[in-house]
Amino acid sequence: MTSIARRSQLGAAGPDTRRSHAREESWEHVEDANGVDESESPLRLTFGNPREALHPLRAIADRVGQQVEQFAEKVDHWKDRGMNDAVKNYLSTVELVKSFKTIADDTVKHLNKQHGSELEQERKRATQRRLKTSDDRGTTPAAIQSIESDDLGFGVQAGTTLQDLQHWQSEADTWELLRLLVEEEVGDPRVDRQQEKEDEVNRRGPVHRYTPEIEVWERFLVEDDQARGRKLILNWLEATARHNEADANSVMERLQDTGRGQGTWSQGWLDTRERIKITKKMSANPRQHAASVRATDRTRELVTELDPDAVTRQYLSLEKVDDQYEQTIWLAIWVMLRQGKTWEEVREWCRERNEGWRAVSMGMAHATEGARTCLEGAYAGQLWRRLCFVAARQGGMNEYERAVYGMLSGDQQTVDPVCRTWEDYLYASRQLVESVNKLGAVAVEGKKPMKMIQGSLIGKYFEDLLYKYGVAISKRANSEGVKSTLVPKTEVEAEEAYMTMTEDYNALRIVVHAYLLLNALDLEIPSEHRPDIENVLAGYIDFLRLAGKIDLIPTYAAQLSPMRAEYTLARVLPDIRDVGEQRELMDLMRQAKISVGDVLIEHYEYVLTESSLGEHNTPTIKRYEFLEPTAKEQSIWPGQRIKLGFLPNPQNISADEDKLVRAGEWYMLLPNAWNAVFIPLTIILKRFLRSGRVGAAVALCQRMPFKTVSREKSRDFLHIASGIDVMEEYQEEEDYEELLRNFVDQLARLHEQRRSNASDACHPAVEQMREQSRVYYELQQLVNMLIALDKWRKAEKELVDDNNPRKPADSKATLRKLFDNVRAAIEPLFSDFLTHGIDDAELTELTAIRHAYIPEILFAYLSVIHSAAQLLTREHLLLSMQLATVVADEANSELAEAFVETGRMGKLVGVFAENSKMMLKLAERKGKVKGRGKKRNGETLEIWEVRARN
Hints:
Structural class: mainly alpha
Strand content: under 5%
Number of strands: 4
Helix content: 55-70%
CATH architecture of the domain at 627-944: Up-down Bundle
Radius of gyration: 43 Å
CATH class of the domain at 627-944: Mainly Alpha
Number of helices: 39
CATH topology of the domain at 627-944: Delta-Endotoxin, domain 1
Largest sheet: 2 strands, antiparallel
């Protein structure tokens, strides 16, 4: 299967009749044999075409910061890892994810300097919202806003916000999660995981009736992979809470708002105690307990004792400030539990505040130092866990106290009311991510991009996220009547959450780099889903294109499948117009081990297929007309003349035509290539001429003149110091001999052959190069004929127009020079012109071009001869007779065929007759004709002089 046919699987254009199979095979063969240049030079490019990009990303394209380049740099170094070495591949991939986290951590540090105080204020407000919400007992509070924002920026810039800081912190957590999962689930290939578990179990010895319960729990974690994975996620959730939520001390600062100072926050229920004392003093018998104590606001009855169980035992209340104190301190303890503090840390914190009994009530179940509070095993402290369950369900002064004991006993019903975020619910329930996402309180938050990414990693369905995300990117890129150049259209329906995700560039960047990491570690992806999954990479490449980061694109294109990489890069090339930038991008593609030749082939086919010059878009013209009839009194012309300004301005070609011209220019950058350069140039020029787009043909010939192309590419191909024009007859010139000697010397050194042997091989090589480039050379000659005729007509008008005030004094001299140019340009027509196609298909194309242009060109030439004979000298009419002889010569049968097949032979004879009449008229003016009797190559006009002697 050819590379072109293979690409059709991606939605690219398949092969068509524009190129013969022989020319196609020779093109690819030449490129495959070429070497590559490994030099590197970064691009600096700002050109882009936003109309063809993923339009929802345009608004933030100009906000891309330096991190995008840092990520690309890390990937660029990583891609050269030892992919065939499992150990090196694993270690380098782990280092890459660590480097991503480092970038995020550094960004957080920088942003924290700008927005740290804002973050602290936001955390305090979140704590206040928690406490205010919990005042309404028995109700489940609504989830507070996630740390994510729907309007996230990117990069550390002057316009950053608190949301940027929160995003980057969340991203750093995501990279840490990915690292933990890679190390746990993939692991170092050098380690036998099963043997390691067996060794650990053997070291611990058998379980017996006296084995501590904590030891049983730890042994369980060693043996059960799923449990160990869940424990890993819990640890990660605790770590994220430590830097995303206020800590216990910050929570306690809220007590200062109640009127208590720093020194009174650890002295218990001061206001209730004071109210009890006042009531006792006012009672009839102060030594007895007051039968009833009313609150200061007289709205409720207070406890009469101050032990910790008084409220639940007496079913009475505390003073409002004490109630707030109680609620706050239990919130602080809940925060410590949520953040994974050890029992020793919780105990010390409570002891500092004279609340040691609270730590005792939570920590009696523990048998080891450093253990987290009652989360170490299913059987540890069963009786105590039951007591905690009763305290959670039947006791508790507020929801946070109930939640703490619910956490200790494993009672989710009493924990859910204090959960505020997606992470809280996931931590408290240990349920699967899909189940958590169905909870009404966090359903919206669970659909935020970062939560979707984290959830897919935790739930082990990242490949499913990739597929759905790729489908959504395709839908977004090809929506609203827009057709994406990089992302093929899909018929699969996209989910709304993933459609929303396509609008967040940060999510796209994270998913792309996570995909690269996991794919390197053999992420299992169904083959039928891979094209849609690769849309994610293509979408990121499209964003880099839009943002002007063209130099980063090869790094990511190299991670695509070979065909998709060629497909994608081919659609990026039209954005790059500067030759230096084109050369640098090709160097980068080679360094990324991407086939530059295949990319250029795909690029050419894409541009041609998408343009109005496709095989089925524009039929071959029957005739390119640029002559106009003249009146009989205008005897200076033989009944017709060239239209003034018939040649289109090559500077005003269409966008389609310009893309094709630039597609040809790219091939000049192929090293050591000859045929691979001239094949596309020939195809493009044939297409322009076949469709009558002469302006575009002129533009191509001006920007890629044969002489320049030949000199440049022959220097590379023949390995000589100075290039040559292979169509010139250098054999008679000294410089050609010098070039050959240099070429021979180099061949001799390379192949260690005698100089004479190398010399024998030189001429056939040049001759082969001529044959391979001949069609392009002759097509360019055809274009030069039209250019010469156009210039003649403009100069002719200036000389004929007697009213022209700008008529130059030396106009006839200029006209003589232009006539010589026309004659030289036309001359190739008379010698086997455009008859050397590579196969029958190309011969058919060349025949169609000859029929469309040659008759009109010869008629124009005869018109030029006719007027030149009158404006300059009648000697020019001899050329008309010579032309008649050439057309009649069987050696030039293709000329006569062009007139016969187009039905214009009669008209040609008529023009010859007009020129013959002009000879007679000019002969009658013999007294006025200068140069009478002069001969041109033995020819004379005297036989046309009608005199008695003749």
